[in-house]
Amino acid sequence: MKFIRFILAFGLFLASPVAAGNVFQVDRIKVDVSATSTTLARSTALQQGQARALSIAMRRLAKQEEWEKLPDIRTLDIENMVEVLRISDEKTGPTRYLATLSIQFKAAPLRDLLRSYGVAVTEVQSKPALLLPVLEDLQGLQAWGEHWWQTSWRDFDIDNNPAPLLLPLGGLDDSLIANAEDILIGDPAKLQMLNDRYGTQTVIVAHALADVEGQLGVTAYIFGEEESDVIVRTYRTGEPHEDMGRVAIDEIASALAERWKQVAAVASDEKQILRVRADYPSLKEWTRLLSRLNEAKLVREVTIVELAKSYAYLDLAYIGSVTQLGGNLGQRGLMLDEGEAGWTVVTEESAVVQ
């Protein structure tokens, strides 16, 4: 828990950006269990679902190279690690139980457990990237409207991953900005218009080539502010395109998450102190800045050393590196910079005004 040691006479104005999701939450776990009674089927299904969700959460939080360090699920008291269990689409029969589960795990115990096994934890998400699924089959190219490739992405848990994705609305306004060809060739001007529309900085074009039965080629083009990259996968399993597509989506989402984990994973909870000067033009900006600092996941404690009308000096107790801290603050709409006089932090809104 984080504390602000300086007690203010005015309240905090909560106006920080909304996080894309929660890496400690696993959605859309489907269970289907048969047993000698409905009660036993339900109990077994919930146990299996929670175990599967915990396995997903641990792999989500850890870098792939450290998965071999993860604890054996069978040795853990899983139920005591669950914060919230939501059940939907519940169906029962005399000996069968079906449902969809959404499970949120307790952040601190799970984080501490993984670090006790020497695993670096990625609990901070990257900024959401705009995902544009493009399907190419015997009917031609499809970007907007309903098609199985887009539906498969929508059915995947794209919100709660370390590298969350945002699907566009896909209505007339989007189609007027860019057509399938524009998206596939990565037209810079039109992709930027879509970024501006959705408040994102990175576009990921996921192209599925499904023109041969039993074969699927998937290429994910990453168009970012500072770099571009490509992820390529080919499947020749003889299965329906939709089945291969679900495997492809899981692998691409995992690859995107791994890219982020390499820079965002934090190996320990050892705190460091960074003194920063916070500049603000008004009381509104000060309270907004303080609120966002306190919400940043890598900031463990904020101590106000000096407070004036238009600036303050703060000691930030944080975990990870300064680079990771800067990225985390950027997630909350704050800018951390080092100058000749030391470190400064301002809200993005204040920076624009200045």
Provide an overview of this structure.
This protein folds into 3 domains: 25-116, 2-Layer Sandwich (Dodecin subunit-like), CATH 3.30.1660; 129-264, 3-Layer(aba) Sandwich (Rossmann fold); 272-353, Alpha-Beta Plaits (2-Layer Sandwich), CATH 3.30.70. The strands form 3 sheets. Strands 4, 5, 6, 7, 8 and 9 form a 6-stranded mixed sheet that branches. Strands 11-12-10-14-13 form a 5-stranded mixed sheet. Strands 1-3-2 form a 3-stranded antiparallel sheet, covered by helices on one side. The longest helix has 24 residues, at 38-61. Mean pLDDT is 87; it is low at 1-19. The chain contains 10 helices and 14 strands. A hairpin with a 2-residue loop joins strand 13 and strand 14 (342-347). The protein has helices at residues 38-61, 107-116, 148-155, 172-177, 180-185, 188-198, 241-264, 283-295, 322-331, 348-353, and strands at 25-34, 82-92, 96-105, 129-137, 140-142, 165-166, 203-212, 215-223, 228-235, 272-279, 299-307, 311-318, 334-339, 342-347. Helix 3 (148-155) packs across helix 7 (241-264). The chain is 33% helix and 31% strand. It is of the alpha+beta class.
